[in-house]
Write a structure and sequence with these properties.
Elements: H1 3-11, H2 20-33, E1 42-49, E2 54-61, E3 71-78, E4 84-88, E5 92-96, E6 102-107, E7 110-115, E8 120-123, E9 128-134, E10 141-146, E11 185-191, E12 196-199, E13 206-214, E14 217-223, E15 235-240, E16 246-250, E17 255-261, E18 267-273, E19 284-289, E20 292-295, E21 302-308, E22 314-320, E23 323-330, E24 335-342, E25 346-347, E26 355-356, E27 362-368, E28 371-379, E29 382-388, E30 401-408, E31 414-421, E32 430-436, H3 455-460, E33 464-469, H4 477-481, H5 491-505, E34 509-519, H6 521-532, E35 538-542, H7 548-554, H8 558-564, H9 575-578, E36 592-597, H10 606-617, E37 622-627, H11 639-654
Parallel strand pairs: 32-33, 32-34, 34-35, 35-36, 36-37
Antiparallel strand pairs: 1-2, 2-3, 3-4, 5-6, 6-7, 7-8, 9-10, 10-11, 11-12, 13-14, 14-15, 15-16, 17-18, 18-19, 19-20, 21-22, 22-23, 23-24, 25-27, 26-27, 27-28, 28-29, 30-31, 31-33
Helix pairs in contact: 1-11, 2-11, 7-8
Organism: Sphingomonas lycopersici
GO molecular function, one term: serine-type endopeptidase activity
Pfam families: Peptidase_S9
Length: 663
C-alpha cells in the first residue's frame, strides 16, 4: 500500500480509539465536562421567576460517560448565592408563570406543571414541543408543537423527527407525497384550571415562533407550507385564539425572528436579517406600531436578542465586529445606551443572547476561550459573576490564547476573525488550520475552548487555528452580510485565502503546512478551496455541500441555495454548476477526508459521497467517513469525539513536520 493510500486508510479505520489522538480528545473533553457527575457544565434559556426570586435555565451535564452524551435538566439558580439546584431531570424549556406559583417544563412525557407545593401534573402530546410561553395573566400556556414527521432545523441536527425513533421495519418503504399531515407546526393551548389541552391552529398554517400580545392574541412568524425551506419566506401574522384566524402584519424583504410585544401591547418588535439558518437571526431591530414598521438604532450592532423591560424600554444584545454588545433602547426617543461591550467575553450559544430580571437588569451565560461558562449580571458597564459552571481543572486544560485579528482582502475589504495559538510551544512558523464557520450568515466569537471539536488538542500539538469571519458574517451591517448573497464561493473564498496569505507573511503560518476544515457552509467552502488552490496540505470538509444541483433537489432547504446563488438550478453554465466543487475536482491535489451524518437532511450524505468519488476519479487522495445515525454537523455523541480524533489524524498525517506526534 503506497504512502497516500496508507495515510487515508489510517484515518478511516473503523476504530480509532486506540490512537493517541483519541486519547487526547477524550482527556480534553473529560476535563471540560467532568462526566458522571451532577454538576452542569453550562446552561441556556435563562428565565427569571418573580415568585421564586431566582433564575431557571436548561442545564447540560454528562450523567454517564462522554460517549453516552449529555442530557439536559431544568436548573434553579439563586441570583444572590449562585447556588445551582436541579429541579427537573431530563427536562428543558423551564417556564415559570408570571406570578411564579407554577413552573412548567418539557420532558419526555410531555409538559409537566409543578406547583408551589411540589405537586406535578403532566400533559402528554404527540410531537416535539419547540416553544412554550405563559399568557400574561398566567392562566394559560401556549405550546408550539412540531408534528411527529417534521424536520428539525440544521442548527439542531437537520434530521426528521421520526428518524430519531430507531430503525424502521426493513420491509416497509418510506413514503413521501410532499404534504403529510404530521409535518405541520401548530399552536396548542393548555389551560391548567380546566385541565384542557387543545389545538388552535391548523394546516395550511405553519408556525415557527410566537409570542403573546394579550390574553387572546398571539403574534407569530408563520408560513403557508410546512417545509423547512418555507421558513425563508415566512411572514409576521397575528392569530386570534378564539377563532384561529390569522391576519398578516408584515411581509419582510429578508428573514425575521424573535417576535416580542411591548408591556402595553401596542408595539411589536422583531429582528429582520439576511439569514442562512432557521432560528439564527442577527440583524436590524424593527418596531411595528399602528401598522407602520421602522428600524431603530442599536449602537451599530446587529441585534440577535431583545426583551421588553417593565418600563417600555428594550434591552438588546448583538454583534459589532468582534465585540458582543448589550444595550438599552428607548423606542420613543430612538436612543440607545451602551450597557456593556467586549471582545474579551461573549454570551449565548449561536449568537449573543440575554435575559432580564424584574429590575430589567441584563443577565446572560458568559464565556471566553479560556473562561468556562458562567452566569453573570451586567452592572455599571461590567459583568458580575453570579454562578460559575466551570468544572474543577477545566481552565488548566485550555492551551494557548485567542486574539482578535484582521486583514485586507484583495479588494481592500477589511476581514475580521480570531487566531488561536500557543507561543510557548511554537518556534517559528507553525501549521495553520483554517476553520470556516457554518452559515454563511454566522460568526466565530471568543467562545469557551473555541467550541470546535479538535481545537484544543491541535493547539496543544503546536497548531495555530484561524477562525475567519468572511463577508456574509453578521456584526457589520446588512451590506457586509449581503456580500455573500449571489456569490457563495466567490469573494468569500478570496477573503479566506487572503487570511492565509496574511499569516504566512507575518511568519505565523508555515506555507507548507496549511490545512482547512469547516462544517455545513464551512464544509462547502473547505471543499471549494480544495478545487481553487494547490496550497493546502490537507482538508477535512464536514457535512458539506459539494453539488448545488443535487443539493437543491435532495435537501430539505432548497430555498436556501435559491436565495444565496445568483442563477436558477437549470441554467446551463450557471452558479449551480460553476460553484459546485464536484464539477471542479479535476486537478485537485489536496488529500481530503470528508465526513457526514447519515440522517442529515440539511446537507445530505450524498454530497460527501459525490465529492469523495470525484476526487478519486481525479487521482486525488480522498477518504469518506459517514456516521449512519448522525445528523447535521456531527454534534452528537460519540461521533463528536470520534470525528475529532479522525480530524487530528488526517491533518497531522498530511501536514509535513508533525508526523511524529501521531504515534
Amino acid at each position: 500500500m503506497n504512502g497516500p493510500r496508507l495515510r487515508a486508510f489510517r484515518a478511516v479505520l473503523p476504530d480509532v480509539q486506540s490512537s493517541a489522538a483519541f486519547a487526547e480528545v477524550e482527556a480534553f473533553y473529560h476535563a471540560l465536562f467532568a462526566p458522571a457527575g451532577e454538576r452542569p457544565y453550562t446552561a441556556q434559556d435563562l428565565r427569571w421567576s418573580p415568585g421564586r426570586g431566582k433564575f431557571l435555565a436548561t442545564c447540560s451535564r454528562f450523567p454517564g460517560t462522554l460517549a453516552q452524551g449529555p442530557t439536559t435538566d431544568v436548573g434553579e439558580i439563586d441570583a444572590m448565592s449562585g447556588e445551582i439546584r436541579l429541579v427537573g431531570a431530563g427536562a428543558r424549556l423551564a417556564r415559570p408563570s408570571p406570578a411564579g406559583e407554577t413552573l412548567a417544563f418539557v420532558n419526555d412525557s410531555g409538559v409537566t406543571l409543578l406547583d408551589g407545593e411540589g405537586k406535578a401534573t403532566t400533559y402528554t402530546i404527540a410531537g416535539r414541543i419547540e416553544q412554550m410561553e405563559w399568557s400574561r395573566d398566567g392562566a394559560r400556556l401556549a405550546l408550539l408543537v412540531a408534528g411527529t414527521g417534521a424536520d428539525i432545523s440544521g442548527a439542531e441536527g437537520g434530521f426528521a423527527l421520526d428518524a430519531a425513533e430507531g430503525d424502521r421495519d426493513w420491509g416497509l418503504p418510506v413514503i413521501d407525497i410532499g404534504d403529510e399531515d404530521d409535518r405541520w407546526r401548530t399552536i396548542w393551548i393548555l389551560d391548567p384550571r380546566r385541565k384542557s389541552l387543545n389545538q388552535v391552529t391548523v394546516a395550511p398554517l405553519n408556525i415557527w415562533e410566537f409570542c403573546w400580545r394579550d390574553d387572546v392574541t398571539l403574534v407569530v412568524v408563520a408560513s403557508d407550507s410546512h417545509s423547512e425551506g418555507s421558513w425563508y419566506r415566512a411572514t409576521l401574522r397575528q392569530i386570534d385564539l378564539r377563532t384561529g384566524d390569522a391576519v398578516p402584519l408584515y411581509q419582510p424583504c429578508d428573514q425575521i425572528g424573535q417576535p416580542r410585544v411591548s408591556p402595553d401591547g401596542t408595539c411589536i418588535s422583531f429582528i429582520e436579517a439576511i439569514c442562512s439558518d432557521r432560528g439564527i437571526v442577527c440583524g436590524a431591530l424593527r418596531l411595528r406600531r399602528d401598522g407602520a414598521v421602522r428600524t431603530v438604532r442599536t449602537l451599530d450592532a446587529d441585534v440577535s436578542d431583545h426583551h421588553w423591560g417593565s418600563r417600555g424600554q428594550l434591552v438588546f444584545a448583538g454583534l459589532r465586529g468582534t465585540q458582543t454588545v448589550i444595550g438599552l433602547l428607548d423606542p420613543r426617543l430612538d436612543m440607545a445606551e451602551e450597557l456593556w461591550a467586549s471582545d474579551a467575553l461573549t454570551c449565548g450559544d449561536w449568537h449573543p443572547s440575554i435575559a432580564i430580571d424584574g429590575a430589567d437588569t441584563p443577565f446572560a451565560m458568559f464565556e471566553a476561550y479560556a473562561r468556562a461558562p458562567f452566569m453573570g449580571a451586567v452592572q455599571r458597564s461590567d459583568v458580575t459573576v453570579i454562578a460559575d459552571f466551570a468544572q474543577n481543572g477545566a481552565a488548566e486544560s485550555i492551551p494557548g490564547m485567542i486574539e482578535a485579528v484582521s486583514w485586507r482582502a484583495g479588494d481592500d475589504m477589511e476581514i475580521q476573525g480570531w487566531l488561536i495559538r500557543d507561543p510557548m510551544v511554537q518556534h517559528g512558523p507553525a501549521p495553520l488550520l483554517l476553520d470556516i464557520h457554518g452559515g454563511p450568515v454566522w460568526a466565530h466569537r471568543n467562545r469557551w475552548a473555541a467550541r470546535l471539536r479538535a481545537a484544543g488538542p491541535l493547539v496543544a500539538r503546536g497548531w495555530s487555528i484561524l477562525l475567519p469571519n468572511p463577508r456574509g458574517a453578521p456584526g457589520r451591517g446588512r451590506g457586509f452580510a449581503s456580500g455573500v448573497v449571489g456569490d457563495m464561493g466567490g469573494a468569500d473564498a478570496r477573503d479566506l485565502l487572503s487570511g492565509v496569505d496574511h499569516f504566512v507573511t507575518a511568519g505565523i503560518a508555515d506555507p507548507d503546512r496549511v490545512a482547512v476544515t469547516g462544517t455545513s457552509y464551512g464544509g462547502f467552502m473547505s471543499a471549494m478551496l480544495v478545487t481553487l488552490t494547490d496550497r493546502l496540505a490537507a482538508a477535512v470538509p464536514i457535512s458539506p455541500i459539494t453539488n448545488w444541483y443535487s443539493q437543491h433537489f435532495t435537501s430539505h432547504i432548497p430555498a436556501f441555495d435559491a436565495a444565496f446563488l445568483a442563477d436558477p438550478p437549470d441554467m446551463a453554465g450557471g452558479q449551480y454548476l460553476e460553484r459546485s466543487p464536484v464539477f471542479r475536482a479535476a486537478g485537485a491535489v489536496t488529500p481530503t477526508l470528508t465526513m457526514a451524518g447519515g440522517l442529515d437532511r440539511n446537507t445530505p450524505p450524498g454530497q460527501a459521497l459525490e465529492f469523495h468519488t470525484a476526487l478519486l476519479e481525479a487521482g486525488c487522495s480522498s477518504a469518506l467517513c459517514i456516521y449512519p445515525q448522525a445528523g447535521h454537523s456531527l454534534r452528537g455523541y460519540p461521533e463528536y469525539l470520534d470525528s475529532a480524533a479522525r480530524q487530528i489524524l488526517w491533518l497531522e498525517d498530511h501536514c509535513r513536520g508533525t508526523r511524529a506526534a501521531v504515534a
